[in-house]
Amino acid sequence: MELLVIDAQGGGLGNMLIAEIKKEMPELEVAAIGTNSAATAAMKKAGASKAATGENAIVVSAGKAKVIAGPIGIILADAMMGEITPKMAEAVGSSDAHKVLIPMNKCGTYITGVGDYSVAELVKQAVAQIKIYLGE
After folding, report:
1. Residue-by-residue pLDDT tens, the chain, 136 positions
2. Strand, coil or helix: 70
3. How far apart are CA 20 and CA 35, in angstroms?
4. In 46-118, which ranges are continuous DSSP H helix?
5. CA–centroid distance for 88 within its chain
6. Which of 3, 40, 59, 68 has the fewest CB atoms within 10 Å of its CB?
7. In b/e form, how buried is each residue of 61-99, taking b as 16+ CB within 10 angstroms?
8. Which among 117, 38, 113, 129 is positioned nearest to 80, based on CA atoms?
């Protein structure tokens, strides 16, 4: 697996990220894992090649990915209104994959130094980094 996108809540960020990835790299297979079925469905709708839901899917897939992308909360235990379990955060954080994390100043976390970018601009920056890591 080359690229794994992880998201929670309604999957809106994951949806935007996968849509932009598929626009820039249409041939790339993208695996999506949501912490809940709504997040998974949103990412599948955006064009994910395969999708799964839940903690075990994240734990298993994080070790197989070349690049993991998603909101910064995927490396913070109990982030995203508690949807990111400590086991999920540890699996993503300790994975050898390159991590492309989109800074979100939400859910009790403030990232200092993050400019005043729209989510769409942050997604474009993330996709540019993914392309670099995958040699595109």
Report:
1. 699 999 999 999 999 999 999 999 999 999 999 999 999 999 999 999 999 999 999 999 999 999 999 999 999 999 888 899 999 999 999 999 999 999 876 666 777 777 778 889 999 999 999 999 888 7
2. strand
3. 21
4. 55-62, 79-82, 86-94
5. 12
6. 59
7. bbeebebbbbbbbbbbeebbeebbbeebbebbeebebbb
8. 38
Residue pair 56/29 in contact by the 8 Å Cβ criterion: no
Strand bridging mode 50-53 / 3-7: unpaired
Angle subtended at Cα 124 by Cα 119 and Cα 128, rounded to the nearest 5 degrees: 145
Name the residue with tokens 């508690």. Answer: 82
| Contact in structure between 101 and 38 (CB atoms under 8 Å) | no
